[in-house]
Amino acid sequence: MIITSSVSPALRVGLRFLGMWPNDSYGTIYWLSFTLSLLIMQYFQYLYVLDHLKMSELSNLVDGLIVTLDYSLMLFKITSLWVHRRVFHKILADMDNDWRECINIDEHLYMMTIKANMSHLISNALLSFNAIVAVLYLLGDYVIHSVFLTTDYNDTLRQLPIKIYLPFETQQSPTFEFLVATLILHVTINSCIIAILNGLILTLILHVSGQIDIMCHEIRNVSNNKSTLLRESTLPLFGMLIERHNKIIAFSKNIESLFSFIALMQVVWNTLVICCLGFVIIISIHNETGIFVFVKTISGYFVIMIEAFVFCFAGEYLSLKGKLIANAIYETIWYDMPSGQNKIIIFIIMRSQKRLTITAGKMMDMSFETFTSMMKASASYVSVLNAMY
């Protein structure tokens, strides 16, 4: 099958579910429905948090905060996407234009197809991983109860998959079974939406990196043909390179506008969730059910780390690819060019000096250095907790 879009079918379905796809007749209804379900869940989750806000219930409080904060982060994300939906639609339109331009040039199409295959593979892998981990995390408590079943355990002690306070009786059948199935489905969908947003930013970054590869390829073609390079008739070729460069810069700025606030919330909320997970990990080490709680918590920890890593990787990868343009231009035989072309080369190099990146609220760059700082902070927190426990 010939690929004609960087957005995978699974990613497209997820974006339609969120109501973010352009020209979708029921997009607003989809977004409002999902947002309303998140708000309802948040209300009952924070009721549980307030009800267990005491030292004697610290373990349950922290365990409940993990999923509660994750839901809060999702609410911030989809709200930010909805506010910037016009920017997102502009990005999708630019991507379609890029594919139409490269469809008739085999070399360009080949480079874009490679990036599209990578984005499709990554999106599908993230969706599968998040769905599996969500189910394992939700079923963790039931596995623990089944293994460590005691004589005083009965149906009245049945727990819901997540910590939530409901103002009505939940233990009787079939109400309990219905709530369990509903909560598992909702949390799994929420986890898949997280994977969709992570897959989206990687898809956009891989798309713009494909455009950068095409531009570098064209620069090398111009540079290798010395007889053509020395003629004034090459000015239109440089004009096309400048136009492509402008499109790359504009596309990168749109990605930054779309994900800047989301990245900021990602850093703040991930730090809070990592602290909660660290607390649960330390408790599980000194508990008889520790191995099961530990596995359950570690699975959630990996999802959080992957989510943070995706944004940091996207920012780092975009910055590295942006530097390739300046390197490719500098490697041309600019010293043999006419003076008019030399000036064009200088301007392209100067514009390439401005780093392409994704920031967290315009305050810090999302990079491997940021990810390392988050890892160090979480490791230090767990170490201190382990020493104090």
From TrEMBL:
The chain crosses the membrane at residues 29-49, 121-140, 178-205, 258-285, 291-314. It holds the Pfam family 7tm_6. Keywords: Cell membrane, Membrane, Olfaction, Receptor, Sensory transduction, Transducer, Transmembrane, Transmembrane helix. It is a multi-pass membrane protein. InterPro entries: 7tm6_olfct_rcpt (IPR004117). It is found in: Cell membrane. GO terms for biological process: signal transduction. GO terms for cellular component: plasma membrane. GO terms for molecular function: odorant binding; olfactory receptor activity. It comes from the Eukaryota. Belongs to the insect chemoreceptor superfamily. Heteromeric odorant receptor channel (TC 1.A.69) family. PANTHER family: ODORANT RECEPTOR, ODORANT RECEPTOR 19A-RELATED. This is Odorant receptor. The lineage of its organism: Eukaryota, Metazoa, Ecdysozoa, Arthropoda, Hexapoda. The gene is LOC112459444.
